[in-house]
Write a structure and sequence with these properties.
Helix content: 55-70%
InterPro entries: AhpD-like, AhpD_core, CMD-like
Number of helices: 7
Pfam family, one: CMD
Shape: globular
CATH class: Mainly Alpha
CATH superfamily: AhpD-like
Domain Carboxymuconolactone decarboxylase-like: 25-96
Number of domains: 1
Order of helices and strands: HHHHHHH
Radius of gyration: 15 Å
Strand content: under 5%
CATH topology: AhpD-like
Protein name: Carboxymuconolactone decarboxylase family protein
Distance between the termini: 24 Å
Length: 157
């Protein structure tokens, strides 16, 4: 399967993706745990049906030392007993923000308040940034029909 367009061969889209990647790199310096960022990336990618990003973030999370068991349970995190309360709050915020069009009024105050109980202001900012960026990546990759399965951790440096 070939993508509809190679984003890195396109002068226009290549620049756009490079800026999104640069923004994502800023999150590496945040105090939001990398494992939480990968759980967020994986869950949003599942919701958005982005096979490329689901593959990528599953593998990147494994590379960080995350267990396959927990990663397999991300889609059903509400019923799973393997996530901390902070991770559950991040996953809930991710779902609400990713499905923003499904709820009039956007993300409920209760969801935000729950996340704010577990994360400081800088971590919340990083969480919002991570959710925003993965949704942008997902949408671009879904439109382009980027194939999944061949990603190797670190291939984008």
């Amino acid at each position: 399967m070939e993508p509809r367009l190679n984003p890195f061969a396109s002068p226009v889209l290549g620049k756009v993706f490079k800026h999104i990647i640069a923004a994502a790199k800023e999150l590496e310096d945040s105090t939001l745990p990398a494992s939480t960022q990968e759980l967020v990336n994986l869950r949003a990618s599942q919701i958005n049906g982005c096979g490329f990003c689901t593959d990528m973030h599953f593998k990147d999370a494994l590379q960080l030392g995350e267990s396959a068991e927990r990663l397999n349970l991300v889609a059903s995190w509400r019923e799973a007993t393997r996530f901390t309360e902070a991770e559950r709050a991040a996953l809930e915020l991710t779902e609400e923000a990713t499905r923003i069009a499904d709820a009039a009024g956007g993300v409920p105050n209760e969801v935000w308040a729950n996340a704010a109980e577990h994360y400081d202001e800088d971590q919340l900012a990083a969480l919002v940034g991570a959710i925003t960026l993965i949704n942008a990546f997902n949408r671009g990759n879904v439109v382009l029909q980027m194939p999944a399965g061949d990603y190797q951790p670190g291939q984008f440096g």
